[in-house]
Design brief:
This protein is of the alpha/beta class. The chain folds into two domains: 155 residues, 3-Layer(aba) Sandwich (Rossmann fold), CATH 3.40.50.10170; 140 residues, 2-Layer Sandwich (Hypothetical Protein Tm841, Chain: A,domain 3). The protein has twelve helices and 13 strands. It has a six-stranded mixed β-sheet with strand order 10-9-8-13-11-12, sandwiched between helices. Strands 2-1-6-7 form a four-stranded parallel β-sheet, sandwiched between helices. A three-stranded antiparallel β-sheet has the order 4-3-5, with helices on one face. The chain is globular, with a radius of gyration of 22 Å.
Length: 326
């Protein structure tokens, strides 16, 4: 019987129990903290890391896995009887991990021409690539073929909607995970930024004041964008505060069908290095061709406000007519 193996890098941020349940292999990134190297979520766990982060003066650095690490993972997958391998990597726009996985594939295939290996540039970050990995495991359980899964992942990878809010932009700016323009806007406005992925890189798409407004934006945009046929689960991510994630889960549950599963997952160390403390994210599959950006959202909200005012005036007019006052 043919089997399909899913491999991810550690920025997918899927918890250990999920990876074990679906037999997903994880290639760890390397984290350097105070000149000491750790393998992401192997040598150091998120709880310990976030406890350290608040007291670190120098931002930790991350390094991509080597091509050899990926090659060995492909070899392990073959030794377990897998003839088809799908490796899902974080966006090539934020790291060289995808290129490393591709190079590892080339080395592996030199002596293993009987195995298929597809390396996916997910164009996603954190639980975005994790979302695709979970979708792939669902398709494997449903009996879908290797090519059907690859086609699905390529088709839908840019429709995995990312929302991320942070308490402080400093980590994202220092690590270069935000464009210069986006970073400048966030710093000048002194507001809580909401980010998404644009062309494989992080960009600010909205600015709000306070956690309540973050929740409001997430819920409004979810209702406007979600593809309900494709979104059978939602992932809520958090860096250091699970209670905020649970609060978002509660608000989402009041607005969605009970058949949609909600996962709460902590961001791993590689992602947490760049996001910092207080990060809150959400992932689902959106409808196609919906633009997202600060100016677009500002214009749309202005139009919505005009429509609301127009509706209120109509109601007032009808009320006055009913009372024969005009």
């Amino acid at each position: 019987m043919k089997t399909i193996k899913i491999i991810v890098d550690s920025t997918c941020d899927l918890p250990k129990q999920i990876c074990e349940k679906y037999n997903i292999d994880v290639i760890p990134l390397i984290i350097s903290i105070l000149n000491k190297e750790y393998r992401d979520c192997i040598d150091i766990m998120p709880e310990e890391f976030y406890g350290m982060l608040k007291n670190l003066e120098k931002l930790p650095t991350t390094a991509m896995p080597s091509p050899d690490a990926f090659m060995k993972s492909y070899e392990k997958a073959k030794s377990e009887g897998n003839k088809e391998i799908i490796c899902i990597c974080m966006s090539s726009g934020t790291s060289g991990t995808y290129q490393s996985a591709v190079l590892g594939r080339e080395y592996f295939l030199e002596n293993n021409s009987d195995v298929e290996v597809y390396v996916l540039d997910s164009k996603c970050m954190s639980h975005g690539s994790g979302y695709l990995a979970l979708k792939a495991t669902e398709m494997i359980e449903d009996g879908k073929s290797y090519l059907e899964i690859v086609d699905f992942l390529e088709k839908y990878k840019k429709r995995v909607k990312h929302f991320l809010s942070v308490d402080d932009l400093n980590n994202l700016i220092k690590s270069g995970r935000l464009t210069n323009v986006s970073a400048m806007i966030g710093k000048i406005l002194r507001v809580k930024p909401i980010m998404s992925m644009r062309d494989g890189k992080g960009a600010i798409v909205a600015k709000v004041r306070g956690r309540k407004q973050v929740f409001k934006h997430y819920l409004e945009e979810f209702n406007r964008r979600v593809d309900l046929e494709m979104t059978n689960f939602i992932i809520i991510g958090y860096s250091s505060d699970i209670e905020v994630a649970k609060e978002l889960e509660k608000k989402l549950r009041e607005n969605i069908n009970e058949d949609i599963k909600i996962y709460i997952m902590q961001m791993g160390i590689s992602v947490g290095t760049h996001v910092g403390l207080g990060g809150l994210s959400m992932y689902f599959i959106e409808k196609g061709n919906i633009h997202d950006g600060i100016l677009t959202n500002r214009v749309r909200k202005g139009i919505d406000k005009l429509e609301e005012t127009k509706h209120k005036l109509e109601e007032k007019k009808n009320e006055l007519l009913k009372n024969k006052k005009i």
